[in-house]
């Protein structure tokens, strides 16, 4: 069996301990790494003694994939090793190590090592993996370099918020309304058209044209990870001009009155486009208010229709 070993490196203007922490805390990944859609811990019980299992949903060569990895965290030596437990073809096995080396008090070198094999040693499969590992490693390290700096300075341009409605109905019905996004063009007035697919169960691609309050339409594309019937997490990969990042999730929590349905958003503003879109005098605060209003309007509209749908199902 042919095992390929490759290494990618980059220098980052941030202390080694801060870089290690960003990589170690997987909830940061969709915000830092462009290919990562969503990450969660498989088994809280197994976390401890530096060992953990995580599930990762990410794109590779433009295709959405998911896998489970076991990680060993070593904060003393600033190393994180990882090994896929169940790989997705054409990958037969995949593992590697993050190594963070301090260069000074304020800069560090990040080394990302991979070793991998293709199913049946297939040359075409190996070529596909070579390209995916190279593209994703370069993308992740470049994003890490950019976003480690932003992580310290981006509070003003980052916003997180949520909208919640109480529904006198079943969580499953409210979840179904949001999950069945392929039907949104018939069910939601602000959705002009939809391209929806779910080739892998639980992993969806959603592209849609949405009408804004001023009548204009814009196209967005998201990957969604669904957990029936309580959570749908997503990451937008085709973004409106005022955002450089948009992640979020829908949750459906049963309570005494039925279900609390919540839409959560995390956004990083694209400050370079504020003047072009909102005018030369517009501020970051104006952009924050504009983006929050636009996203909340659509979320609340969707939640309101989900409420009607679930309550009518009773």
Low-confidence blocks of residues: none
Order of helices and strands: EHHEEEEEEHEHHEEEEEEHH
N-to-C CA distance: 57 Å
In angstroms, what is the radius of gyration?
21 Å
Percentage of residues assigned to helices: 25-40%
Strand order of the main beta sheet, please?
1-7-6-5-4-3-2
How would a crystallographer describe the biggest sheet?
A: 7 strands, antiparallel
The outline comes out as: globular
What does this structure look like?
The protein has 314 residues and is of the alpha+beta class. 29% of the residues lie in helices and 45% in strands. The chain has helices at 16-24, 29-32, 123-153, 171-179, 184-187, 274-278, 284-313; strands at residues 4-12, 36-41, 51-60, 63-74, 79-86, 91-102, 108-118, 158-167, 191-200, 203-211, 217-227, 231-238, 243-255, 258-269. The strands form two sheets. The protein has a seven-stranded antiparallel sheet. A hairpin with a 4-residue loop joins strand 5 and strand 6. It is globular, with a radius of gyration of 21 Å. The mean pLDDT is 92.
Write the topology of this structure:
Blueprint: E1 4-12, H1 16-24, H2 29-32, E2 36-41, E3 51-60, E4 63-74, E5 79-86, E6 91-102, E7 108-118, H3 123-153, E8 158-167, H4 171-179, H5 184-187, E9 191-200, E10 203-211, E11 217-227, E12 231-238, E13 243-255, E14 258-269, H6 274-278, H7 284-313
Helix pairs in contact: 4-7
